[in-house]
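Teaching note: in complex prediction, the entire set of molecules is handled at once rather than each chain in isolation. The prompt given to students was simply: 'Predict the structure of this complex.' The entities are:
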Amino acid sequence: MEKTLRALTGNEAAAEALRQINPDVVAAYPITPQTEIVQLYSGFVADGLVDTEMVAVESEHSAMSATIGAAAAGARAMTATSSQGLALMWEMLYIAAGLRLPIVMPMVNRTLSAPLNIHCDHSDSMGARDSGWIQVYCEDSQEVYDSLIQAVRIAEHPEVLNPIMVCLDGFILSHAMMGVQVYPDDEVRDFVGIREPHYTLLNARQPITVGAIDMFDYYFEHKRANAEIMRTCKPHLQGVFDAFADRFGTRYGFLEAYRLDDAERAVIVLGSTAGTARVVVDELRAAGEPVGVLNLRVFRPFPAEELIDALAHVRGIAVLDRAEAMAGLSGPLFFEVRSALYDLAPRPTVTGYVYGLGGRDIRTEDIAAVFHELKDDIAAGRRDQRCRYIGVRE
Amino acid sequence: MPSVKELISRPTIFTGGHRACAGCGAAITFRMLLETPAVPVVAAISTGCMEVVSTIFPFTAWKCSYIHSAFENSASTMSGVESAYRALTRRGRLDQEFRFIAMGGDGGTYDIGFQALSGAMERGHRMLYVCYDNQAYMNTGIQRSSATPMWAHTTTSPAGEVATGKREARKDITAVMVAHEIPYAAQGTPAMWSDLVRKVEKALDTDGPTFINVLAPCPLGWGFPTQDTIAISREAVDTCFWPLYEVVNGEYKITYKPKEKKPLVDFLKQQTRYRHLFRKGGEHLLEDIQRHVDFKWARLLKLAGKEAA
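The expected output is the structure of the full assembly:
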């Protein structure tokens, strides 16, 4: 397969994936830092590079509502958003998942107001973690591009049929340029195929009712079935990762373990921080420190078993959250990781760190300091360190 | 315009067995407007009375495809359905004509769904939006909306020791839709079935966004006997409380002009939501309502190029 190396920002990589997918309907509204995706896509429509029905809606609430309507009508429908836009969609996120609609959405991570701030953290998508969407976090533009292509197959898999958001760090990825291997249009189009829905609103011979009201006699069963999807979809995600590797050559998983095999200490991260952490790990390894990094790619469904397998032998773990859970404890990733590792014997030391809120930089020396603190915690037998903050003026 | 005989021979799309209250003006309206389309329709509805009573899982009163997603967005949800229809038709994956009817109560139309409706109309989707206007949040138990008329009692604009119901006049949403310069906007009532059916047919034949506001009296919320829904609807028209008109490409046309414009008092007297106005001291409030209705009617006559009767 002839791949083309192109210099693309995260937003351009997302738009390029969308162009190749050429969905039936795109309904979107501009918001920093996602705007470029909508803008570029509108350009593709204007130039006839795609023949998508583009709906430039009047709000993100309507963006998700229209996407829901289009998906229920059997179309492959997509949107994209960030931050306040995701917050305005909130209600509709749960409805998209509850109606089991295979919507794909690039989600450019940006913090939530107040104070108003347009820069990156994960408080937007983390707040949507219980909405029933599959969530993938990308480390670089290549992964944004690849993940969006995979996302179509995952969402529409007949045993999955679930919405999925592909998250990329605002500005850090969305506006930073890097080399991306772009695959030929026909290869991507062949990989994603055409959506073949079981039921649609647009079949006059078989009319359907979508969005009925459940009383206490059915609601619980329907939500239980929703929750079960998060359990049963994992092999199908893996199947798509494998099919992608077979065709395009890059192998993805639920998580990426870097130099963890013999590690005594590890940091867990999401998104673009993984690259920074790997540099630190290489430096400390060169100095003889047994450290590693775990980059969690798929946050929903939460890959607890894979996490346990990767970390069973590690004594000290720092969970780096780019979001505050406002629980007086730490960030959301910390809760889930610590809970997943609770049954390990011996139980590792798991410490929460919150960093990078509102776009505050995370530097290599910050992560090196985390590894050193972990070393001290293990030596001192400290287990009560639930939350430390990185790079903030206290 | 189909004959009555032709209409009743068409399959019923909104079937019986739903759980609307006896005498529900909205249920009568739904049945009428859904018997009109000659081609298959997809219905979208906002959360509210008619959604709740018609689709209690595992039952549905809808024999056409139907989607409900939330309260404020039947217009934007339908934007997506209609866009999917256009995309799939263009791409050769659909070979079947459809019409699209989005619906909402007055709360879902005048208030919380106002933005989504405005957006969908401005974008020019080919859909008919029907507001079933029962003049308050009836599903949650008669709370004021911006469609609630002046001096009506609701549970959030109650008549009390010092208050006399809703102080403000209702929002003229039909005028707001006309201001969107959509090709067709109208007001209807279930009391005048031929007028309503003709308007629905006209709207569905229009290649663009259309809007019909239907007064749907609510026996429970307005406080009148359930057998009087149609009579009350007719009086609303004969008093010019709810004028029947249409606006085609900006041209106003009154589709029913009462031979003799009836005074409002008798109409209001039949509804317990106005009961407090008939106590001593309420006279000026009754005059207030009459003045407002007269003002609106005179303006409509002017817009339609007619002289006041």
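Point out the following to students. Chain B touches chain A through 47 residues (CB under 8 Å). Residues 149 and 170 of chain B are 5 Å apart (CA to CA).
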